[in-house]
User: What shape does this take?
Amino acid sequence: MPAVVLLVVSIVMLLGMTVGLLWRARDAGWMRDEGLVANVHPRAAVVGFVVTGLFVAALAFVGVVMIGGGHPVEGWAWMVLAFVGVELLALQVWVFRQRVTDFGASEDEPPD
Assistant: This one.
């Protein structure tokens, strides 16, 4: 029973994270602010990508080991949590790759 609860909670976390990220990504002001933060310190952003990627790999590894060890429900719960991390990593990369522009400024105009 606790394994099923863990799986259900991880699925609820995945759905909640997906809805939250989609809601935030639709806000142009939030995207601009996140892009500014990511582009101010690009090395820190890349370190964040690496750390998040390692965390996702660790979660997936634990999930695979648990599935292979005869605990499929717990293993799939860890795999769902790893997918939450993949979602966060994809959003970080997407925000980092967005072009940060000043609203209303032309591309041809030099900055003042």
